[in-house]
Amino acid sequence: MELHKISTQKTKEEVVAGKMTGLIGLDESVTWRAKHLGFYQELTSKITEYKYPEYFVDEMQKGAFKSFRHEHYFIEEFENKVKMVDVFEYISPFGFLGRLIDKIFLKKYMITLLVERNKVIKEFAETDAWRVVL
Hints:
CATH architecture: 2-Layer Sandwich
Shape: globular
Strand content: 35-45%
Distance between the termini: 10 Å
Structural class: alpha+beta
Number of domains: 1
Mean pLDDT: 95
Protein backbone atom coordinates (compact mmCIF):
# COMPACT_ATOMS: atom_id res chain seq x y z
CA MET A 1 0.00 0.00 0.00
CA GLU A 2 2.84 2.35 0.84
CA LEU A 3 4.56 1.88 -2.54
CA HIS A 4 1.29 2.42 -4.40
CA LYS A 5 0.85 5.70 -2.56
CA ILE A 6 4.43 6.78 -3.36
CA SER A 7 4.05 5.80 -7.02
CA THR A 8 0.89 7.90 -7.39
CA GLN A 9 1.99 11.09 -5.63
CA LYS A 10 1.02 13.18 -8.67
CA THR A 11 -2.62 12.18 -8.23
CA LYS A 12 -2.45 12.56 -4.43
CA GLU A 13 -3.75 9.04 -3.84
CA GLU A 14 -4.61 8.10 -0.30
CA VAL A 15 -6.36 5.13 1.25
CA VAL A 16 -9.75 6.02 2.71
CA ALA A 17 -11.13 2.53 3.44
CA GLY A 18 -10.18 -1.13 3.44
CA LYS A 19 -6.60 -2.38 3.60
CA MET A 20 -4.61 0.59 4.83
CA THR A 21 -0.99 -0.60 5.08
CA GLY A 22 1.31 -3.44 4.11
CA LEU A 23 0.75 -6.04 1.43
CA ILE A 24 -2.75 -6.65 0.14
CA GLY A 25 -3.94 -10.21 -0.45
CA LEU A 26 -6.68 -12.29 -2.00
CA ASP A 27 -10.24 -11.06 -1.38
CA GLU A 28 -9.01 -7.88 0.32
CA SER A 29 -10.26 -4.49 -0.83
CA VAL A 30 -9.00 -0.94 -0.72
CA THR A 31 -10.66 2.37 -1.50
CA TRP A 32 -8.40 5.04 -2.92
CA ARG A 33 -9.15 8.74 -3.13
CA ALA A 34 -7.23 10.56 -5.85
CA LYS A 35 -7.32 13.61 -8.07
CA HIS A 36 -7.71 12.72 -11.74
CA LEU A 37 -8.45 15.18 -14.52
CA GLY A 38 -9.04 17.94 -11.97
CA PHE A 39 -11.60 16.04 -9.88
CA TYR A 40 -11.27 14.04 -6.68
CA GLN A 41 -12.62 10.54 -7.13
CA GLU A 42 -12.89 7.39 -5.07
CA LEU A 43 -12.27 3.92 -6.43
CA THR A 44 -12.70 0.64 -4.59
CA SER A 45 -10.64 -2.26 -5.88
CA LYS A 46 -10.57 -5.90 -4.75
CA ILE A 47 -7.87 -8.52 -5.24
CA THR A 48 -9.78 -11.22 -7.14
CA GLU A 49 -6.89 -13.49 -8.11
CA TYR A 50 -3.56 -14.00 -6.37
CA LYS A 51 -0.76 -16.48 -6.90
CA TYR A 52 2.37 -15.32 -5.11
CA PRO A 53 4.88 -14.52 -6.52
CA GLU A 54 3.61 -14.94 -10.09
CA TYR A 55 0.62 -12.64 -10.43
CA PHE A 56 -2.33 -10.87 -8.91
CA VAL A 57 -5.45 -9.23 -10.30
CA ASP A 58 -7.39 -6.30 -8.93
CA GLU A 59 -10.84 -5.37 -10.18
CA MET A 60 -12.91 -2.27 -9.58
CA GLN A 61 -15.83 -2.81 -7.23
CA LYS A 62 -16.98 0.80 -7.21
CA GLY A 63 -15.75 3.86 -9.06
CA ALA A 64 -15.90 6.09 -12.12
CA PHE A 65 -15.40 3.38 -14.76
CA LYS A 66 -18.11 1.07 -15.95
CA SER A 67 -15.54 -1.65 -15.18
CA PHE A 68 -11.83 -2.30 -14.98
CA ARG A 69 -9.53 -5.24 -14.45
CA HIS A 70 -5.81 -4.81 -13.77
CA GLU A 71 -3.58 -7.88 -14.10
CA HIS A 72 -0.01 -7.80 -12.76
CA TYR A 73 2.40 -10.53 -13.90
CA PHE A 74 5.92 -11.10 -12.58
CA ILE A 75 7.94 -13.26 -14.96
CA GLU A 76 11.36 -14.54 -13.94
CA GLU A 77 13.61 -14.25 -16.97
CA PHE A 78 17.31 -14.88 -16.28
CA GLU A 79 19.98 -14.15 -13.68
CA ASN A 80 17.34 -13.35 -11.04
CA LYS A 81 15.80 -10.69 -13.29
CA VAL A 82 12.02 -10.31 -13.18
CA LYS A 83 9.88 -8.64 -15.80
CA MET A 84 6.63 -7.06 -14.67
CA VAL A 85 3.79 -7.03 -17.19
CA ASP A 86 0.63 -4.99 -16.67
CA VAL A 87 -2.60 -5.79 -18.46
CA PHE A 88 -5.12 -3.04 -17.83
CA GLU A 89 -8.58 -3.35 -19.34
CA TYR A 90 -11.33 -0.86 -18.70
CA ILE A 91 -14.67 0.24 -20.06
CA SER A 92 -15.54 3.91 -19.82
CA PRO A 93 -19.00 4.86 -18.59
CA PHE A 94 -21.62 6.73 -20.63
CA GLY A 95 -21.74 4.50 -23.72
CA PHE A 96 -20.91 6.33 -26.97
CA LEU A 97 -19.87 9.51 -25.15
CA GLY A 98 -17.50 7.49 -22.94
CA ARG A 99 -15.94 5.79 -25.97
CA LEU A 100 -15.44 9.20 -27.60
CA ILE A 101 -13.80 10.62 -24.46
CA ASP A 102 -11.62 7.52 -24.34
CA LYS A 103 -10.41 8.08 -27.90
CA ILE A 104 -9.88 11.81 -27.42
CA PHE A 105 -7.83 11.73 -24.20
CA LEU A 106 -8.65 9.13 -21.54
CA LYS A 107 -6.70 6.22 -23.08
CA LYS A 108 -3.55 8.35 -23.35
CA TYR A 109 -4.05 9.64 -19.81
CA MET A 110 -4.36 6.10 -18.41
CA ILE A 111 -1.30 4.82 -20.29
CA THR A 112 0.79 7.77 -19.09
CA LEU A 113 -0.40 7.25 -15.52
CA LEU A 114 0.56 3.56 -15.54
CA VAL A 115 3.94 4.13 -17.24
CA GLU A 116 4.91 6.84 -14.74
CA ARG A 117 3.74 4.71 -11.82
CA ASN A 118 5.68 1.70 -13.07
CA LYS A 119 8.87 3.76 -13.37
CA VAL A 120 8.67 4.46 -9.64
CA ILE A 121 7.96 0.80 -8.84
CA LYS A 122 10.91 -0.26 -11.03
CA GLU A 123 13.22 2.14 -9.19
CA PHE A 124 12.16 0.72 -5.82
CA ALA A 125 12.47 -2.88 -7.00
CA GLU A 126 15.95 -2.44 -8.50
CA THR A 127 17.49 -0.56 -5.58
CA ASP A 128 17.41 -0.90 -1.80
CA ALA A 129 14.51 1.58 -1.71
CA TRP A 130 12.04 -1.31 -1.43
CA ARG A 131 13.24 -1.83 2.14
CA VAL A 132 11.52 1.42 3.10
CA VAL A 133 8.07 0.12 2.15
CA LEU A 134 8.24 -3.49 3.36
